[in-house]
Write a structure and sequence with these properties.
The complex is a heterotrimer of chains A (about 190), B (about 850) and C (about 290). Chain A has helices at about 1-10, 10-15, 30, 85, 90-95, 115-135, 160-175, and strands at about 40-45, 55-60, 65-70, 105, 115, 135-140, 145-155, 180. The longest helix of chain A has 19 residues, at about 115-135. Chain A is elongated. Chain A starts with a helix and ends in a 5-residue tail after the last strand. In chain A, strand 7 (about 145-155), helix 7 and strand 8 (about 180) form a beta-alpha-beta unit. Helices cover about 35% and strands about 25% of the residues of chain A. Chain B is α/β, with parallel strands linked by helices. In chain B, the strands form ten sheets. Chain B has a six-stranded mixed sheet. Chain B has a five-stranded parallel sheet with strand order 3-2-1-6-7. A three-stranded parallel sheet of chain B has the order 10-11-12, with no helix packed on it. Chain C has two domains: about 5-250, 2-Layer Sandwich (Alpha-Beta Plaits); about 250-290, no CATH class. Chain C has helices at about 5-10, 35-45, 110-115, 140-145, 165-170, 175-180, 190-205, 250-270, 280-290; strands at about 25-30, 70-80, 95-100, 120, 125-130, 150, 160, 185-190, 210-215, 225-230. Chain C is built from nine helices and ten strands. Chain C has about 290 residues and is of the alpha+beta class. Chain C has a four-stranded mixed sheet, covered by helices on one side. In chain C, strands 2-3 form a two-stranded antiparallel ribbon. Chain C has a two-stranded antiparallel ribbon with strand order 4-5. Helix content of chain C is about 30%, strand content about 15%. Classes of the chains: A alpha+beta (about 190), B alpha/beta (about 850), C alpha+beta (about 290). Chains A and B meet through strand 1, strand 2, strand 3, helix 4 and helix 5 of A and helix 11, helix 12, helix 14, helix 15 and strand 10 of B.
Chain lengths: ~190, ~850, ~290
C-alpha cells in the first residue's frame, strides 16, 4: 500500500522518470479517464427554437434527461454552429424558472392557485363554449352567413410547430368560428 | 409578404442562406443580420472572404456594419428615398439588365390612359378616395385587361390583411398590350423612369442625410456586381417591415433586383430574414385572420367573397398556378370537414367564419380595450412586452373575462394583473380585475416532435428527445384535447351554429401515457392524401376539385410522400443548396423562380452563374436546383395567355408562374392598398415634412388608430419631441425575452435596458455614459441607462442636426435581466397591407435622470409627466 | 478558394486531434461578429455559472474579463466611425471584437508555479487545471502573465479554460470553436494554425489592413501561445500585454533544489500518515462538490 501510494506521488514519479512534474506523471485518475459528458448518450436531431435561420441541433439525452445540446455539423444551413441563444438551448429547457404546473388566477384574485391539468382543461373548455354560445353570429341582417365570433381571440404561432398552427387554425377558425386569429408574423 | 408576393408571386424569401456565398455583392438594409441571424451570417462572411462587397445601410453602426466594407448611415424612415435613388441610378446610367427586364418583367406592358402617378397628382396615385381614405385600384390595371366582376383584389379590401392577395388579382392580367420598344410613355418602363426621376443623389444627401459620395460608392458597388456574369443579393428584416410603408420599401428592393436581373439566379435574390423559428411557417400554415393554409384568403364581406361562387370567381385565375384554385380550397375543406364536406353544401364553405372587420391583432386589441371581448389565447407570445403601446396592451387584458397563456415560463402577459407597472403605480388593482387567468406550462422544442419552416421556406423536422417536465405539454396536445372537449359539447346540440364544430374532423390517434397526438397523422393531413384510399400525394398537381383529395396545406404537398418518408426530417445534404436536408416549398426548389437563371432560350446567362437550364437532348429542365418550372416545357413553348388555361398557358420564357402573365411585376397592377409603385412618405410621427409630396406627408392609406389612449405627437416636427426614436434587437436576447431574460447564461450578457445616443447629443444634454436617462413619447415613459457611443451619429437634414435615440426592446419586469418595456413608447398603428406597427422611426424626447418610480405618488407623477408632453 | 474557406469547412470531429499533435486556438478578430456564442457555449458545456448581472456601460461588453466563471470573453473595442466605411475597410479601426481565452502558454506561469501538481500539460499540449487536485493555494493566479487564472472565493479552488480536454479526448472540438458562427475561433493543429495565420495576415495586409498583427509572443519567457490571436491595432486594447513574462521562470532552478531538499522531510511525513484511509485530497473533493452544489 505504501508503495502504491508513493508511486502515485508526483514527486516520486518525477524522480523516477526525470520528468518535471507537469506532464502525465501528474495526471490524476479523473484526468486520465476524462470523457465528455455526452459520452454514451442518445442523440435526437433537432432544430434551434430561436430565430428563423433554422440551425441544426443535436440533443444529447440519457434516461429521459437532457445532457447537452449543440450544433449539428451535418446541417447545410448552420454547419454545426450556433449563436449565443442557440447555444443556451439546454438551459432554456432546464433552468429553474421553467413552469411545471398549471397556475390559476380566479376573478379578483390576488394570488396564483394550483389547479390540476385536467381540471384546467375542463374549465377552459367551459369558458370557450360559454363565450361562443353568447357571442356567435350566424347571419347578418341581410341573412348572409357570418358564422363567427369576434369576442374571443388567439395570438401566437411564430414560435410554434407547423402542426400546432395547423390544429389551431383548424379548430379555432374551422370549428369554433373565431375570426380574430393572429401571430407575430406580418410581412 | 405582399411586397415580395405582389412582385414575384410568393410571399417568401426568393433564395437560400447558403446561396449568399455565391453573391458578388450583398446589400443588408433594414436588418442587422450579424446580430440577429449570426449563424446565417456565416454565408455573408464567406461571400465577403471570397471578394464580395458587403454594404450595410443602417442608422447605427452595428455589429453588421463592423463586418461590412461600406457602411451607409441614413435617417430612420428615409429608406424609400435611398432605394428610389438606387433605382434611378440604374435607370439613368443604363445599368439595367436589358434582356432580363424585357422578357421577365412587365416593363413592356402598357398601362391604362386613366392611370396617374404620384408625380402627376402630388403624392397620391389615381383612384384615391380622400373621404374613404382608400384606393380604387381599377386605373392601375394593364391596358385592355378585363376587370373581374368582383372588383378589387382581396388585398385591397379595407378590412383585409395582405397575406392572401396572391389569390386575388383584380383583373385578368393575362390580357395586356406590350410595347417592345419600351418607348411608349404609358409602358411600365417609362412610367418607372418618370416616377423615380426625382430620387436623386442630391435628394439622398438632403433628406436621408447620406453624403453623395457615400451614396455613389454604394450604388456603384451594388450595380457593378450585377449582370450576366455577376449577381448581387439583398437581405432585409423588420428594419424594413415595421414601418407605416414596409411592403413598399420591400417593393423598392424588388424593383431594383428586377432591373438588375438578380431574381431566380445564384447569388442573387431577396432574403427576408425572419425573427422566429417558424415565422414563415406560421404564415404558410397561418395563425392569421385573413388567410387559410397555403395563402388561400378567408371569405371577406367587403370584396364580396362571402359566397362560394363569388369566392371562386375572385380567386381563380385563368392562367398560372392559381387557375387550380378550386382544387386547393376544396382539398382543404375536405381535410377540415371530411365526409361532411359535400359538393351539395359547397364543401362546407359556409362553415368558415367571415371576416367582417379589422380582426388583426392590433385591431382586436383595441376592441378588447373597449371592453368588447371575452377571452384570449396567448400561445408562445408575450404581447405586453413585445407589442406597441404596452400600457394599452396591459390595461386591455384587465377587461377580459378569461385569458389563457401557454409558455415555458411565467411571462409578463400572464402576470399583468399583479405586478405590471400599472399595478405598481396604482392604475390597476388586482382586486378589481375580473380576468380569470390560466397559465399553462408548455413543452420546449426538445420535448416534442414537429416541424419549423425557416426563413428560406425550408421545412425542418425536430425530433423529441425527452418528455416535458411535470404538467408541461406540447401545444398540439393542448389544442387536440381542448378540441375534443369542445366537440363533446357541440355534439349535445346539433344546431346550425354548431354545424362546423360537429362537422370538423378531429380523430387524431394519440400515444403514450399523456395521450400525445401522433404527429405523423397531422403531417399526413398537411401533406394531403386521396380521400377514399388514403394514399399520400406527391405534388399539389395531384389535387382535385371534386372532393377526391384532402390537403391541409397545398404548398407543402409532397413533403411527406410516403407514410415513412418525411422529407422535412431528411438529414443527408447532397449539395451546396442542401438538397437531401429538409424540404423547401415549393417542390424542393431552394432558389425560386430559377427559370430566370437561364436566358429566354434556356441557356444559362453565363457559365459562372448557371443554376437551371434546358437540356435540349433530354428535352427537360435540369441543373443544380430543382427547377421551379414545368420540367418538360421547352423555352420556345409559345403558350396561349389569352385563351389557354393554367400553367400550360404560360410561355416557355415566363419564370413567374404564380402571376397570370408569367412575369415579375415592376408595376403592381393589383394587390397593394397603397399604390402600384413605392413612393416616399414620412413616418407617422416625423421630425420633418415630406420633401417630395408636401400635401401627403405620411402614407395616406395607413391607419394611425389615434384615440385618447393611443395618442400621437403633432405631425410634423412636434417641438416637444425633438429626437428620432428607433427600436431594435440584440444578439444576446430573443424578442420579448421569455426565452432569454430568464436564462442566466444569456441574461448576464445584456443584463439591463439601455439606449444608445451620440456623444453630440450627450454633450448637449450633459449626459454621462452609463447614467439614467428617461425617454418620453405621448404613449409612455421609459428609463434606461445611456450608452454614449459614436456608433450613433446625428444626421443633417435641411441644414438641421437631427439626433437619433436607439433602444432595444427585450426587457420587461420579470426574469433575471429586467428593465422598462421599451415598446410602451410605441403607438399602435397599421400599415395598410399587413397591419404592422411602426417601430423603426418615430419621435421622442430624452432627459437626464430616472423618472419613473413605483409606489405611492407614482401614478400622479406618471400622469403629470405625460400631460406635460401631451 | 482561400484557406479561410477551408478552415471554415473544418468538420467538428477534427482529425488533427491526436496525442501526437499539439492543438491550439487561433482567434481571428477580423472574423469575429461579437455575438458571444463562445461565452455561452463554453458555460453550457462546462456547467460554468453566470457571474453577475451588471451593465458595464462599456460598449456591449458586460462580461468584463476572464475569470473563474468566464473562460471565454469577447472584448469590444470602439474606434473611429466614418460614414462610407464599414469595419472591413482597411483604412481604420471602427468596432472590433475579439474573443479572449486562456493562452495555454508554451511556458506557462501557472503551471510552473503550481506546487500541488494540479496544473498539468495534456497530451494536446494545453495547460489543464485538475479540479480534483487543486487545493486553492492561489500561486497560479499571481503567476499568470495574462491574469487569466482566478480562484472562486466560495469554493477556494482556481478555475480556467479546460481547452475542453474531455471533448478533445474523443476527437471533438472545444465547445467555443464548435459554436463560433463565423469561425473566428479556429481550432486545430497548432503549427498548421500558425501557418494559416501568417497567410491570413499577408492577405489582410494586401487588402490594406495595415494595422492587423498576430499576437503570439515567442520572444518573451512565455515562448509563444497555444491560443494566439490576430487583432487590429494595439494588442493592449484587447487585454493582451505587449511583453508578457513568466514571473517564476527565473526562479525555477532555485525552486527545484528547494523541492528536492524538502523531499526527504515530506517523505517521512507521508509515511507517518499512511494509517489514514482517506487522503486529504479526496476529502477536499467531497467538500468542494458540496460547496458547488
Amino acid at each position: 500500500m505504501i508503495r502504491e501510494l508513493l508511486s502515485r506521488w508526483p514527486v516520486i514519479k518525477q524522480i523516477q522518470t526525470g520528468a518535471d512534474g507537469t506532464g502525465p506523471e501528474s495526471w490524476s485518475e479523473r484526468t486520465r479517464h476524462l470523457v465528455p459528458k455526452n459520452h454514451g448518450a442518445e442523440v435526437a436531431r433537432s432544430i434551434c427554437p430561436y430565430c428563423g435561420v433554422g440551425c441544426g441541433q443535436l440533443i444529447f439525452h440519457k434516461d429521459n434527461k437532457l445532457v447537452s445540446i449543440e450544433g449539428d455539423p451535418e446541417s447545410p444551413i448552420s454547419r454545426g454552429r450556433l449563436c449565443p441563444k442557440g447555444s443556451a438551448t439546454y438551459q432554456l429547457h432546464t433552468h429553474e424558472g421553467r413552469l411545471k404546473k398549471v397556475k390559476y388566477r380566479r376573478p379578483y384574485g390576488t394570488r396564483w392557485e394550483e389547479v390540476d391539468l385536467d381540471t384546467a382543461m375542463q374549465m377552459i373548455a367551459d369558458r370557450v363554449w360559454d363565450t361562443r354560445e353568447r357571442t356567435f353570429v350566424e347571419k347578418n341582417d341581410k341573412g348572409e352567413p357570418v358564422m363567427h365570433t369576434a369576442a374571443m381571440a388567439h395570438l401566437g404561432g411564430a414560435t410554434l410547430d407547423n402542426e400546432e398552427n395547423y390544429l389551431i387554425k383548424k379548430l379555432f377558425a374551422g370549428g369554433l368560428g373565431m375570426s380574430c386569429i393572429s401571430n407575430q408574423a406580418r410581412i | 409578404m405582399p411586397g415580395l408576393g405582389t412582385s414575384f408571386g410568393r410571399g417568401g424569401a426568393t433564395t437560400a442562406q447558403t446561396d449568399l456565398a455565391r453573391a458578388d455583392a450583398i446589400l443588408i438594409m433594414g436588418s442587422s443580420m450579424a446580430e440577429n441571424h449570426p449563424v446565417g451570417f456565416q454565408w455573408v462572411m464567406e461571400a465577403r472572404e471570397r471578394g464580395a462587397t458587403l454594404i450595410h445601410v443602417d442608422p447605427r453602426f452595428t455589429r453588421t456594419s463592423a463586418m461590412a466594407d461600406i457602411w451607409v448611415p441614413l435617417r430612420p424612415g428615409s429608406d424609400i428615398i435611398f432605394l428610389g435613388a438606387l433605382i434611378n441610378y440604374v435607370l439613368t446610367n443604363n445599368r439595367w439588365f436589358d434582356e432580363y427586364v424585357r422578357h421577365y418583367t412587365n416593363a413592356t406592358f402598357l398601362l391604362r390612359q386613366d392611370f396617374k402617378d404620384t408625380e402627376d397628382l402630388g403624392g397620391v396615385f389615381s383612384g384615391w378616395d380622400e373621404e374613404k381614405r382608400q384606393y380604387d385600384p381599377t386605373s392601375w390595371l394593364y391596358e385592355e385587361s378585363p376587370e373581374k366582376e368582383t372588383r378589387g383584389a382581396t388585398g385591397t379590401a379595407p378590412t383585409a390583411g395582405g397575406h392572401g392577395q396572391r389569390g386575388g388579382e383584380a383583373s385578368k392580367s393575362n390580357i395586356f398590350i406590350k410595347d417592345e420598344s419600351m418607348q411608349d410613355p404609358r409602358c411600365v418602363f417609362q412610367v418607372l423612369k418618370r416616377h423615380f426621376a426625382r430620387y436623386t443623389p442630391e435628394m439622398v444627401e438632403e433628406y436621408c442625410g447620406v453624403a453623395q459620395d457615400v451614396f455613389l460608392k454604394a450604388a456603384e458597388a451594388f450595380t457593378n456586381a450585377s449582370g450576366p456574369e455577376k449577381t448581387a443579393a439583398i437581405c432585409y428584416a423588420v428594419g424594413w417591415t415595421q414601418h407605416s410603408k414596409g411592403p413598399q420599401i420591400i417593393r423598392s428592393a424588388a424593383i431594383l433586383q428586377m432591373l438588375l436581373g438578380n431574381i431566380g439566379r445564384p447569388g442573387g435574390g431577396i432574403l427576408a430574414l425572419r425573427g422566429h423559428a417558424s415565422i414563415q411557417g406560421s404564415t404558410d400554415i397561418p395563425t392569421l385572420y385573413d388567410i387559410l393554409p397555403g395563402y388561400l384568403p378567408m371569405p371577406f364581406f367587403d370584396v364580396g367573397t362571402y359566397t362560394w361562387d363569388k369566392y371562386l370567381e375572385k380567386h381563380t385565375a385563368q392562367t398560372g398556378i392559381w387557375a387550380s384554385y378550386e382544387s386547393y380550397i376544396v382539398s382543404l375543406l375536405r381535410a377540415y370537414y371530411g365526409d361532411n364536406a359535400k359538393k351539395e353544401n359547397d364543401w362546407g364553405f359556409d362553415w368558415l367564419p367571415r371576416v367582417t372587420g379589422d380582426h388583426s391583432q392590433l385591431g382586436y386589441w383595441l376592441q378588447m380595450e373597449d371592453g368588447k371581448m371575452d377571452g384570449l389565447f396567448v400561445i408562445g407570445q408575450n404581447p405586453v412586452v413585445g407589442a406597441p403601446n404596452g400600457r394599452l396592451q396591459r390595461i386591455a387584458l384587465s377587461k377580459l373575462k378569461w385569458l389563457v397563456v401557454r409558455d415555458m415560463v411565467e411571462t409578463e402577459t400572464a402576470s399583468f394583473w399583479y405586478d405590471s407597472p400599472e399595478v405598481r403605480r396604482g392604475e390597476l388593482d388586482p382586486k378589481s380585475i375580473a380576468t380569470e387567468v390560466f397559465l399553462m406550462p408548455a413543452a420546449g422544442q426538445a420535448e416534442k416532435s414537429g416541424m419549423f419552416t425557416n426563413t428560406q421556406r425550408l421545412l425542418q423536422f425536430h425530433n423529441k428527445a425527452v418528455d416535458p417536465p411535470g404538467d408541461a405539454r406540447s401545444d398540439t396536445w393542448f389544442i387536440y384535447h381542448l378540441g375534443r372537449l369542445l366537440k363533446d359539447k357541440a355534439a349535445r346540440n346539433r344546431s346550425a351554429r354548431n354545424e362546423p364544430m360537429n362537422a370538423l374532423q378531429w380523430n387524431y390517434p394519440t400515444e403514450g401515457p399523456t395521450a400525445e397526438p401522433k404527429i405523423d397523422e397531422i403531417d399526413w393531413e398537411i401533406n394531403g392524401f386521396t380521400w377514399t384510399d388514403r394514399k399520400l400525394i406527391k405534388s399539389y398537381k395531384e389535387l382535385k376539385s371534386d372532393g377526391s383529395t384532402a390537403c391541409g396545406c397545398w404548398i407543402y404537398a409532397g413533403f411527406h410522400p410516403e407514410p415513412t418518408l418525411n422529407k422535412a426530417n431528411q438529414r443527408e445534404p447532397k449539395d451546396y443548396l442542401g438538397h437531401g436536408w429538409g424540404f423547401a416549398w415549393p417542390n424542393d426548389s431552394r432558389v425560386i423562380y430559377n427559370r430566370a437563371s437561364a436566358a429566354p432560350d434556356g441557356k444559362p446567362w453565363s457559365e459562372k452563374k448557371k443554376l437551371v437550364w434546358w437540356d435540349e437532348q433530354k428535352k427537360t429542365w435540369t441543373g443544380l436546383d430543382r427547377p421551379d418550372f414545368d420540367l418538360r416545357k421547352s423555352p420556345d413553348h409559345p403558350g396561349d395567355l389569352r385563351n389557354g388555361k393554367g400553367v400550360d398557358a404560360l410561355p416557355g420564357d415566363a419564370p413567374f408562374i404564380l402571376h397570370s402573365d408569367g412575369v415579375a411585376w415592376l408595376f403592381v397592377n393589383s394587390g397593394l392598398k397603397d399604390g402600384p409603385l413605392p413612393a416616399h412618405y414620412e413616418p407617422l410621427e416625423s421630425i420633418i415634412s415630406n420633401p417630395l409630396y408636401p400635401d401627403h406627408g405620411t402614407n395616406p392609406a395607413a391607419q394611425t388608430k389615434q384615440r385618447p389612449d393611443n395618442p400621437y405627437a403633432k405631425q410634423p416636427n412636434d417641438p416637444r419631441f425633438p429626437y428620432v426614436l428607433s427600436t431594435y434587437r440584440l444578439t444576446e436576447h430573443h424578442t420579448a425575452g421569455g426565452m432569454s431574460r430568464t436564462l442566466p447564461h444569456l441574461a448576464e450578457l445584456q443584463p439591463e435596458l439601455f439606449c444608445e445616443i451620440s456623444p453630440e447629443l450627450a454633450g448637449e444634454l450633459g449626459i454621462i455614459n452609463g447614467e439614467w436617462v428617461t425617454i418620453t413619447t405621448p404613449r409612455g415613459i421609459v428609463s434606461a441607462h445611456a450608452l454614449v457611443t459614436s456608433r450613433v451619429r446625428p444626421v443633417t437634414i435641411g441644414g438641421r442636426k437631427i439626433h437619433t435615440v436607439g433602444i432595444p426592446y427585450h426587457w420587461g419586469w420579470k426574469g433575471m435581466a429586467q428593465g422598462d418595456v421599451a415598446n410602451d413608447l410605441l403607438a399602435i398603428s397599421e400599415e395598410p397591407n399587413v397591419r404592422i406597427m411602426e417601430t423603426k422611426a418615430l419621435v421622442c424626447n430624452l432627459t437626464r435622470g430616472h423618472r419613473f418610480p413605483d409606489g405611492a405618488g407614482a401614478l400622479e407623477q406618471f400622469q403629470r409627466e405625460i400631460q406635460r408632453v401631451a | 478558394m482561400s484557406t479561410f474557406i477551408h478552415a471554415m469547412n473544418a468538420p467538428t470531429e477534427n482529425p488533427d486531434i491526436h496525442s501526437s499533435h499539439t492543438t491550439g486556438f487561433f482567434t481571428d478578430s477580423t472574423l469575429c461578429i461579437g455575438c458571444k456564442a463562445c461565452e455561452v457555449a463554453c458555460k453550457e458545456w462546462n456547467d460554468v455559472p453566470e457571474d453577475g448581472l451588471n451593465l458595464s456601460g462599456y460598449s456591449y461588453d458586460n462580461t468584463g474579463s476572464l475569470s473563474f466563471s468566464t473562460w471565454r470573453h469577447v472584448k469590444f473595442v470602439e474606434g473611429e466611425i466614418k460614414p462610407g466605411d464599414g469595419g472591413n475597410s482597411g483604412n481604420h479601426l471602427s468596432w472590433e471584437f475579439s474573443s479572449d481565452v486562456c493562452k495555454h502558454c508554451e511556458v506557462a506561469g501557472c503551471l510552473e508555479a503550481c506546487p500541488t501538481g494540479a496544473l498539468v500539460r495534456t497530451e494536446f499540449g494545453s495547460v489543464f487545471l485538475q479540479p480534483d487536485v487543486c487545493n486553492g493555494c492561489g500561486y497560479c493566479t499571481v503567476n499568470c502573465p495574462f491574469g487569466v487564472v482566478q480562484r472562486n472565493e466560495d469554493d477556494g479552488r482556481a478555475f480556467k479554460c479546460t481547452f475542453c480536454t474531455d471533448r478533445q479526448k474523443v476527437g471533438l472540438e472545444p465547445a467555443c470553436a464548435t459554436a463560433c458562427p463565423t469561425k473566428s475561433i479556429m481550432f486545430g493543429n497548432l503549427e498548421e494554425l500558425r501557418e494559416h495565420a501568417q497567410s491570413r495576415l499577408s492577405d489582410l495586409h494586401g487588402k490594406g489592413m495595415k494595422d492587423a498583427q498576430i499576437y503570439d509572443p515567442k520572444d518573451t519567457s512565455v515562448k509563444g501561445l497555444h491560443a494566439f490571436f490576430l487583432v487590429r491595432g494595439d494588442p493592449r486594447m484587447y487585454n493582451l500585454p505587449p511583453k508578457p513574462e513568466v514571473p517564476i521562470v527565473y526562479q525555477k532552478d532555485a525552486w527545484r533544489s528547494a523541492v528536492i531538499g524538502s523531499g526527504a522531510f515530506l517523505l517521512a511525513a507521508l509515511i507517518a500518515f499512511t494509517g489514514s484511509r482517506h487522503s486529504s485530497r479526496s476529502q477536499r473533493k467531497v467538500s468542494a462538490r458540496r460547496s458547488r452544489a
